UniProtKB/TrEMBL annotation:
SUPFAM superfamilies reported for this sequence: P-loop containing nucleoside triphosphate hydrolases
Similarity remark: Belongs to the ABC transporter superfamily.
InterPro entries (alphabetical): AAA+_ATPase, ABC_transporter-like_ATP-bd, P-loop_NTPase
GO molecular function, one term: ATP binding
A Pfam family this chain is assigned to: ABC_tran
PANTHER family recorded: ABC TRANSPORTER, ATP-BINDING PROTEIN
Region (Disordered): 302-328
Domain ABC transporter, first and last residues per copy: 5-230
Organism from which the protein derives: Streptomyces enissocaesilis
Protein name: ABC transporter ATP-binding protein
Keyword line: ATP-binding, Nucleotide-binding, Transport
Length: 328
């Protein structure tokens, strides 16, 4: 299958530091795969090894069965945004892309096409040096798209962008995946991944912690409940209680009920002629799921070293690991 990225036991050590620790997973075409982990988890190092910018200490990463160095015209296989500032600022956006196209056997017409795609046509002749962070990101993405590759890889693409820019990047990633391409995107923001990714690879301290669909991840890690809002909150709570349903008050007439569907709750309220202003099933966000996992890590650490996590990253990773043992 075209557009596959396969990591097998991928490992990177810097002296004593193990930045990437025996990572084995596959990134598939047609979906957005989120690569999630806290700062310092090893995401950038993994992506650099994928592009042949760093050599693995052990293990292997292959693109359609080949190492990056073995790819003929690599920009036609894989386009990447690693560091948006890594360009010659004195050149215009057009010239920057033209140089990239000419040195990679890509036709000149692609330059105008990708400038159009990323919305930079109007500033194409301006020097990249004067670009805002958002424009720089767009130019970096234009470079990634230049070779019309099957695989797109973005390292923290929404960092520092305004809401309009974030929205644009999210839609772009989804539409690229919708075209059947492989989209591999890193983030340390769980909430961001929840909105964008179909599949999730989670790492912490260089190790694989989860490799799962987003829907399964949320289902297995988050609480679902039903939110009810009623001007008769006290009576509603009593009725739920009598039916053996736990409901917690959240103020403003809101109750959160566990262990019953919104259909069951709606029918129960109707039987007791209770007015409902809201009846909505809720699923905790990915962010909440991760907060739960982080909370679990404190307990986990108490078993091993008797203390709380030294860093958010350490706790976060350990928490997910603990969940993983339960079968994430
Ligand atoms: N060239 C290097 N020399 C020594 N240590 C390094 C080097 N590059 C990365 N590291 C270390 O490897 C670990 C993983 O770093 P990496 O940048 O890959 O993480 P990351 O998940 O991308 O984090 P961030 O979200 O902060 O970019 C970190 O502890 C980092 O300090």
């Amino acid at each position: 299958m075209a557009g596959m990225i396969e990591l097998t036991g991928l490992t990177k050590r810097y002296g004593e530091k193990v930045a990437v620790d025996r990572l084995t997973f596959t990134v598939r075409p047609g979906i957005v795969t989120g690569f999630l982990g806290p700062n310092g988890a090893g995401k950038s190092t993994t992506m650099r090894m994928l592009l042949g910018l760093d050599n693995p200490t052990a293990g292997d990463v292959r693109i359609d069965g080949k190492r990056y160095a073995e790819l003929k015209d690599p920009l036609k296989y894989i386009g990447a945004l690693l560091d948006a500032k890594a360009m010659h600022g004195g050149r215009s956006a057009y010239h920057h892309l033209l140089c990239l196209a000419q040195s990679n056997g890509i036709p000149r017409r692609r330059v105008s096409e990708v400038l159009e795609t990323v919305g930079l046509t109007a500033v194409a002749k301006k020097r990249a040096k004067g670009f805002s962070l958002g424009m720089g990101q767009r130019l970096g993405i234009a470079g990634a798209l230049l070779g019309d590759p099957e695989i797109l890889m973005f390292d923290e693409p929404v960092n520092g962008l305004d809401p309009e820019g974030i929205h644009w990047i999210r839609n772009l990633m989804k539409s690229l995946a919708g075209q059947g391409r492989t989209v591999f995107v890193s983030s340390h923001l769980m909430s961001e991944m929840a909105l964008t990714a179909d599949h999730l690879v989670v790492i912490g301290q260089g190790r694989l912690l989860a490799d799962t669909s987003m829907a399964d991840f949320i289902r297995e890690n988050s609480r679902s409940y039903v939110r009810l809002r009623s001007p008769q909150q006290e009576r509603l709570r009593d009725v739920l209680h009598e039916a053996g349903i736990t409901a917690v008050g959240r103020g403003d007439g809101v109750l959160e009920a566990d262990g019953a569907t919104s259909e069951q709750l709606g029918e129960l309220a109707a039987r007791h002629q209770l007015v409902l202003h809201e009846l909505s099933p809720q699923q905790a966000s990915l962010e909440e799921a991760f907060m739960q996992l982080t909370a679990g890590s404190v307990e986990y650490h108490a078993h091993t070293d008797g203390g709380v996590p030294q860093t958010p990253g350490a706790g976060w990773g350990a928490g997910v690991q603990q969940q993983k043992k339960k079968g994430v």
